[in-house]
Amino acid sequence: MNTLESVLNDPPASTPHSELRRGALAALPVLLGFIPLALVLGAQASQHQLKAGEVALMTGLNFGGGSEFAAIELWTSPPALLVIVAMTLLVNSRHLLMGATLAPHLRHLPLKKALGALFFMCDESWAMGLADARQRGGFSLPYFMGVSLCLWTTWVSFSTLGVLLGPLLGDLHSYGLDMAFAAIFLVLLKGMWKGVHAALPWLFSLITAGLFFLMIPGGWYVLAGTLAGLLSAYLWAKP
C-alpha cells in the first residue's frame, strides 16, 4: 500500500523533453518584453539601410541585445567596422563573467556541447537558469536550453520583422518600449536575491557603471561595471 501511495503522490520523473518544455513555458512571459525590443532594433536597423537578411544574420550570430543596439547606432555608410567590432566586444564582455558562473554546471559536458549551450546564452536565460538551479537544487541543461532557444528564436524573428515594418512603426522609443529590457532584468534579479551582503557587488557595479556612463563616452561603462562587480565580490566574499 505504501508503495502504491508513493507512486500516486510522487510527481513524474523529469525527462530531457519535459525539462525542455518547462524551460520553453517559463520563457513565455519574458517574450512579451523581447518582442517590442526586437521590433525596435529592427526598425532602427531599417533606418540605417540594413536589409532583413543582414539583421537576421547579426542577431542570430551575436544574440547580445546591448551590443546590437550599439552597433546599429554606430552604423555608417561605409560602416566603421573596427569601431563596431571593438564596441561589440566591449559591451559583450559581461558574457565572460556569465559564462564563468555557468562553467561548473557545464564541466561534465563535451566541449562542443558546452560551447553550443553558451552560444545561445543571453542575460535572461543565464539569470533564469541559475535561479532555477537554486530553487531546485541543481542546474538543468534542458531547461536552460528550452529558455534560450525560445528567446533566440523570438529575438531573431521579430528583429527581422522589425526591419520590414520599420517604415510603418515610426519611432518606437516614444512609447517607452526600450525600457522593456531593463524591466525584465530587474524582475529576474529579484529571483536571484540572496540577501543584502550578496547584493553589495551589484550595488558597487551599478555605481561604477553609472559614473563611467556619465563621465566617459562610449561603452566603457559596461567593462567598468563588470570589473567593479568582480572586484567587490572578491573583497566581500565570506571566508
From TrEMBL:
Subcellular location: Cell membrane
Keyword terms, alphabetized: Cell membrane, Membrane, Transmembrane, Transmembrane helix, Transport
Membrane topology: Multi-pass membrane protein
The keyword Zinc is assigned to this record: no
The keyword Magnesium belongs to this UniProt entry's keyword annotation: no
Membrane spanning stretches: 20-43, 143-166, 172-189, 196-214
Predominant localisation class: membrane
UniProt record similarity statement: Belongs to the AzlC family.
Protein name, entry field: AzlC family ABC transporter permease
